[in-house]
Design brief:
By secondary structure, this protein is of the alpha/beta class. It folds into two domains: 90 residues, GMP Synthetase, Chain A, domain 3, CATH 3.30.300.110; 192 residues, Rossmann fold (3-Layer(aba) Sandwich), CATH 3.40.50. The protein has nine helices and 13 strands. It has a seven-stranded mixed sheet, sandwiched between helices. A four-stranded mixed sheet has the order 1-2-3-4, with helices on one face. A two-stranded antiparallel ribbon has the order 5-6. Helix 4 packs across helix 5 and helix 7 runs parallel beside helix 8. The longest helix has 15 residues. The mean pLDDT is 96. Bound molecules: S-adenosylmethionine. The site of S-adenosylmethionine has 21 residues, from helix 5 and strand 8. S-adenosylmethionine binds next to helix 5 and strand 8.
């Protein structure tokens, strides 16, 4: 049993504990409690009840200084939640999140960041070989880009985001982590930036935005040198008996081949479950441009 259900059971009893969502995300010293309203469901708890839970969370997690309730999903172009309600502690939405020894300043109401991608950040960083040039098309506050710079012998990461708040934090995070010589921040639409100044240079392109990855594959191919890897993140709905990995590989391969690329190899892994039977899957494509 998770911490929220445990607290609810202790304070409000078994009945209501069975109905709550047990989802808590901790980013730096901020805790985010997730309401079932995120999935369009009725919330069994009132705001006053959530405030009692928030106080208990702070007693258990001594490092948590501020607790927020998330009511709407991360959505829109910037992948930011429209609605948070402050529950307890400092009324502050900015924090420093640490991952693999790197530090990331973020305001949870202005830019996207989730600890649920941490395994993926390191997995990709470990694949990067000495001297590579990487393009990160959807960089957020710079997590993938900076972890790659810290944990590999990368030559350069071009790190693009269209959200001016995310970009501002990315610029600051590059300085905080002392990787100014290896991570170049770009503000704008990655399609436009690649067309304008980043064609035919990357050995690896990251596309960590499932809603846009397939549509933007043509720009990933433009950024790539003759041969390289594209990491395409997708949301895959797998019906009973369907393999989400096979489905994702087939979608990504068909898109790349439809754009005239030769796919030398492909593999995929499930990153996380994002809904009932909906998986976030990453497909790694080894590509040769014709
Ligand atoms: C899922 S978040 C990125 C997560 C980040 N890579 C991480 O690991 O924390 C997707 C990001 O893509 C950005 N974005 C959306 N459309 C974009 C576009 N056309 N060009 C560049 N960035 C874009 C959003 O602002 C958002 O920060």
């Amino acid at each position: 049993m998770g911490i929220i259900r445990d607290i609810v059971k202790r304070i409000f009893g078994n009945d209501i504990a069975g109905k709550v969502w047990d989802r808590l995300e901790i980013i730096g010293d901020i805790a985010i409690v997730k309401s079932p309203r995120l999935a369009g469901l009725k919330d069994p708890l009132s705001l006053d009840e959530y405030r009692i839970i928030a106080n208990e969370i702070m007693k258990i997690h001594k490092n948590v200084k501020s607790v927020w309730l998330a009511i709407t999903p991360a959505a829109g172009e910037y992948r930011v939640r429209k609605k948070y309600v402050h529950l307890s502690g400092e009324r502050r939405s900015e924090t420093i999140y640490k991952e693999y020894g790197c530090k990331f300043k973020v305001d949870i109401t202005k830019a996207f960041l989730t600890p649920r991608l941490s395994y993926e950040h390191l997995r990709v960083a470990k694949l990067v070989r000495e001297g590579e040039k990487v393009v990160n098309m959807f960089a957020g506050v710079g997590t993938f880009s900076i972890i790659i710079a810290c944990k590999s012998k990368v030559r350069l990461v071009h790190s693009i985001d269209v959200n001016p708040f995310a970009w501002k934090f990315m610029v600051e995070n590059i300085k905080i982590n002392k990787v100014e010589d290896r991570v170049i921040p770009h503000l704008g639409d990655s399609a436009e930036i690649i067309k304008r100044k980043l064609t035919d240079l990357a050995s690896r392109v990251l596309m960590p935005l499932p809603g846009l990855a397939l549509d933007y594959t043509e720009y990933a191919l433009q950024a790539l040198r003759k041969r390289g890897i594209i990491h395409i993140y997708l949301h895959i709905r797998a019906l009973k008996g369907e393999d989400p990995l096979a489905k994702a590989i087939s979608l990504a391969r068909r898109r790349a081949e439809g754009l005239g690329a030769k796919v030398i190899g492909s593999s995929a892994r499930i990153v996380r479950l994002v809904g009932p039977r909906i998986y976030q899957v990453v497909v790694d494509l080894d590509i040769k441009k014709r």
